[in-house]
């Protein structure tokens, strides 16, 4: 009966949601009910798997509702204001969903197959909550774009409101995850090292997502203390060092390495100079310079690599640092 119900819901959500007026609220209620049932002690692993599939469909539709073109197919009519003010669930509703999703993931009775679906749901949630605005674009530039379209102060007020609400949601998401951080990181790390290839890839993507919402270097310290970052670097280097690795390894293995590489790249992107120094201290340049990239083994001068590491860790001037990095890139790749 539950399987039949889930199939009806998934088809209705995928193909008939446009017939309803308040789609977002209906999707939220379905998501909320599914997650509530999943966290129940009476819910078996099989039932939880079916309910999680329903949750995934609802979250995917919510994500489409948010990021779809505000003016439909008439993209010429879309303004910057339309884009930045795209509809989203209230922060309180998002926080409620994340809390219940965390509880569902940490349930006592579970399986790797179920957790893979829950990890995918968690990643979809973080994508839904991500800001449409690029954090690297200064607010002054956004204000200029808004003023170019329309005159008045309403656009500036809307921009400030959107930025404030997103910052509040990001901090709330971090706070909710941090309350169960030890259990979450332990569980995800276990699947990252001992799960199937599909489970490993999803687990590393979850760790990547945790780093992306980290505000106090809390998750960075968690990963460092467990040796996860060094293990990722070693796995990536070993994979790239193999002859014809892309042909001999399975596609699932490639996805796992891709997830590990994404996690390492996230360090330097999210933590800036500090993240780059962590990678250099682990020997990232030495490891990658010895890899069989582009089908050919490259010989590298160890002294040159050592000098570059010193430059990047702050022992020489900034201009010398930049020059050394360019040399490293040309040698390594």
Separation of termini?
57 Å
Helix content: over 70%
Beta strands, count: 0
Instruction: Provide the residue-averaged pLDDT.
Output: 80
Number of helices: 18
The profile of the biggest β sheet is:
none
Radius of gyration: 23 Å
The assigned structural class equals mainly alpha
Order of helices and strands: HHHHHHHHHHHHHHHHHH
Beta-strand fraction estimate: under 5%
Name the overall outline: globular
> What kind of assembly state do the chains in view correspond to?
single chain
Taking pLDDT < 50 over at least 5 consecutive residues as the criterion, the unreliable ranges are: 294-302, 315-333
GO cellular component, one term: nuclear pore
Organism: Zea mays
Main location: nucleus
Family: Belongs to the NUP186/NUP192/NUP205 family.
3D architecture notes:
The chain has 333 residues and is mostly helical. The chain has a domain of 172 residues. It contains 18 helices and no strands.
Identify the notable features of this structure and list them briefly:
single chain; 333 residues; mainly alpha; 18 helices; 0% strand; globular; disordered C terminus
Can you lay out the helices and strands and say which pair or pack?
Layout: H1 2-15, H2 23-38, H3 45-67, H4 80-84, H5 91-105, H6 112-129, H7 139-149, H8 154-179, H9 181-194, H10 197-212, H11 218-225, H12 228-241, H13 245-248, H14 251-271, H15 273-281, H16 284-289, H17 302-312, H18 318-332
């Amino acid at each position: 009966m539950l399987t039949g119900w889930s199939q009806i819901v998934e088809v209705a959500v995928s193909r008939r949601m446009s017939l309803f007026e308040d789609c977002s609220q209906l999707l939220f209620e379905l998501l909320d009910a599914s997650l509530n049932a999943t966290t129940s002690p009476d819910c078996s692993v099989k039932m939880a798997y079916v309910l999680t599939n329903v949750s995934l469909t609802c979250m995917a539709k919510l994500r489409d509702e948010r990021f779809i073109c505000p003016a439909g197919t008439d993209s010429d009519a879309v303004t910057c204001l339309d884009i930045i003010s795209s509809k989203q669930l209230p922060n309180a509703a998002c926080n409620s969903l994340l809390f219940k999703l965390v509880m569902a993931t940490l349930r006592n009775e579970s399986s790797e197959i179920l957790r893979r679906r829950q990890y995918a749901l968690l990643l979809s949630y973080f994508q839904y909550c991500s800001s449409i605005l690029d954090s690297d674009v200064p607010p002054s530039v956004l204000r200029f774009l808004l003023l170019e379209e329309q005159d008045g102060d309403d656009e500036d007020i809307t921009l400030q409101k959107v930025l404030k609400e997103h910052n509040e949601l990001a901090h709330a998401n971090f706070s909710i995850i941090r309350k169960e951080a030890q259990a979450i990181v332990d569980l995800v790390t276990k699947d990252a090292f001992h799960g199937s290839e599909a489970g490993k890839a999803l687990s590393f993507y979850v760790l990547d997502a945790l780093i992306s919402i980290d505000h106090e270097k809390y998750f960075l310290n968690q990963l460092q203390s467990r040796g996860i970052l060094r293990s990722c670097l070693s796995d990536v280097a070993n994979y790239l060092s193999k002859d014809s690795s892309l042909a001999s390894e399975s596609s699932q293995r490639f996805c796992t390495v891709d997830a590990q590489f994404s996690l390492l790249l996230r360090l330097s992107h999210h933590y800036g100079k500090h993240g780059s120094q962590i990678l250099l201290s682990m020997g990232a340049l030495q490891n990658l310079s010895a890899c069989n990239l582009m089908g050919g083994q490259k010989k590298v001068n160890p002294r040159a690599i050592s000098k570059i590491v010193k430059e990047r860790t702050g022992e020489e001037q900034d201009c010398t640092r930049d020059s050394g990095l360019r040399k490293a890139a040309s040698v390594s790749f």
